[in-house]
Amino acid sequence: MPIRIPENLPAQSVLLGENIFTMEDQRAASQEIRPLQVGILNLMPNKIETEVQLLRLLSNTPLQINVDLIRIDNQAPKHTPQSHMDAFYHEFSEIKDKRYDGLIVTGAPLALLDYEDVNYWDTMKTILEWANRNVQSTLYLCWAAHAAMYHFHGIQRQLRKNKLSGVYKHRVNDTHNELLRGFDSEFFAPHSRYGYISPADYNSIPDLNVIAESDEAGAYVVASDDKRMVFITGHPEYDPETLNDEYHRDLNAGMEPAIPANYYPDNDPSLPPVVRWRAHGSLLFTNWINYYVYQTTPYDLNQLVEKDQRKR
């Protein structure tokens, strides 16, 4: 089944070129099923690139999914045309009375800022509380995962001296958790962050469990027992060249970034990177949609029950 996205969204042509079936509003309206409603709160500066990455992962499911793209504020993004934002994105005020089966909150390049110094932190807190009442299952990526842990549980991230960048080996801690169904006992995933929360801090919260982690990168997949909150500290959505682009961006900015670990053959940035995370990244999103969203969400979204978030 396809994902339903706004007509003429640039991601559509990219996905169709990859033989990924998408559906426009007019055709979707004739389907006599109850499609899943999924929102994407996109905090990344390059909105279009992130849209393609996430929509690609959401497409690997037999379910029809209606996608709403959501923006955090009215500020013009640095790397996305304003016309694109006006055409395809919803203000939070436009969707705040709507309920969703699933919500994805992306990472953001804000690692070195205190949360209260982020110019949209008040709005972010409002959206986090709104998701608590109006979304069946929320998936937080990278910075958003740490921000949600701070807001709901008072756990402050630590900052590494050097950025964690690369593709790291992880192990599955809970082989029975449906979110990791089909995973190998060891798998790889990309990370690109300064922030760090220890596995012990995650596990100290009642009903939260670190279900996949890495000796080098720490906790990777953290999930609540009720399946309504998922924290992903890395970037399973990354394209093969994303870490390479970030590395050369920082080089061109006069910084001295470390070469992304376990990424280039022989650690040589002149060689094409080795891609070994995309299958598990796709499976992670498919499992989330199936087991954490579709299998748990009420048919009538008005029957959603507010999540019980116990702050420390």
From TrEMBL:
InterPro entries, per database record: Class_I_gatase-like, HST_MetA, MetA_family
Sequence positions that bind substrate: K163, S192, R249
EC category name: transferase
EC code: 2.3.1.46
Pfam assignment, any one: HTS
A GO molecular function held by the record: homoserine O-succinyltransferase activity
Keyword Transferase listed: yes
Name of the protein in question: Homoserine O-succinyltransferase
Organism in which the protein naturally occurs: Alteromonas gilva
Lineage of source species: Bacteria, Pseudomonadati, Pseudomonadota, Gammaproteobacteria, Alteromonadales
Name of the gene encoding the protein in the UniProt record: metA
